Amino acid sequence: WKTIGNDGFFAIHGRFRSKRWGSFRAFLTDPANAVVLRFDDRVVLVSPDNPAGFVREVTRRLEALAEGRR
Q: Residue 60: how many CA atoms within 13 Å on its side-chain side?
């Protein structure tokens, strides 16, 4: 369900609610490439061009932050 936002011609963006994700923000141009980012206080869906590469890079950066590196 769309709470507020756009789910039209070139993009899906805004605030939504679903049984699966609860309340979430979406910034999608290609729902087939959706990546779900779960934080303590929110859920965000994005659609990078390369989902696997995006996940690898986010994981690498989170590990670096946990180790105190940049």
A: 7
pLDDT at 70 over 60: yes
What the block records as the tokens of 51 is 């989902």
* CA-wise closest residue to 21 among 3, 41, 38, 2: 38
Look-up of token digits 């049984």: 19
What is the strand order of the sheet 35-38 is part of? 2-7, 12-18, 22-28, 43-46, 35-38
Q: At 11, is the secondary structure helix, strand, or coil?
A: coil
Quote the pTM value.
Answer: 0.77
CA angle, 11 as apex, 9 and 17 as ends, to 5°?
Answer: 115
